User: Which sequence fits this backbone?
């Protein structure tokens, strides 16, 4: 499943991180890295789509004019404090799109490359089995925070099913009338599937 979320960080926080990264050449204080991880972990749509068991510290990447990335695939095992299986890659965009030209994230989950360029503070979540790249940066420079997650749910298809059920429950609770019985049934289905698929 490929998921785009627009508000993982506020644009102000993303801008502050860019300023800090430019000043320190990607050597970011630990509390700034922890803030990115906390923002990813606490976002409800990301929690629903990723079902995280553990999340790596961010790797901050800068692409300058003329730089690109072609046909990359994530590693299966990511070494952080402890080695973890990388099921999901998360790209948090820190630079405002108006600050650079080009530099789109390209992701291929089996149907050809699609292009993504969310606003500052937005992110793209992809299965680590997907090929990805970065289109050439034509002007300016682009910062992202790259993280990896080991999910409680190993398979991307199963994660997508759980996301769809959870998101439907959320929408029914917001906009549905007299649907408590249906919401309860969907929650039971969601929990039953978690029991089948989860690997804590």
Assistant:
């Amino acid at each position: 499943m490929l998921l785009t979320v627009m508000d993982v960080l506020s644009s102000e926080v993303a801008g502050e991180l860019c300023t800090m990264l430019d000043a320190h050449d990607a050597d970011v204080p630990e509390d700034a890295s922890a803030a990115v991880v906390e923002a990813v972990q606490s976002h409800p749509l990301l929690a629903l789509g990723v079902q995280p068991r553990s999340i790596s510290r961010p790797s901050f990447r800068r692409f300058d004019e003329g730089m690109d990335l072609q046909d990359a695939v994530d590693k299966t095992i990511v070494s952080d404090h402890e080695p973890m299986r990388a099921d999901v890659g998360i790209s948090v965009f820190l630079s405002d799109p108006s600050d650079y030209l080009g530099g789109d994230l390209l992701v291929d989950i089996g149907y050809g490359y699609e292009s993504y360029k969310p606003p500052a503070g937005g992110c793209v979540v992809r299965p680590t089995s997907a090929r990805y790249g970065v289109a050439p940066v034509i002007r300016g420079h682009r910062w992202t925070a790259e993280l990896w997650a080991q999910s409680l749910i190993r398979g991307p298809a199963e994660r997508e099913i759980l996301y769809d059920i959870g998101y439907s429950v959320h929408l029914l609770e917001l906009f549905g009338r007299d649907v408590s019985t249906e919401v309860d049934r969907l929650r039971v289905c969601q929990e039953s599937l978690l029991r089948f698929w989860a690997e804590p």
The chain has five helices and 14 strands. The first strand starts at residue 3 and ends at 5.
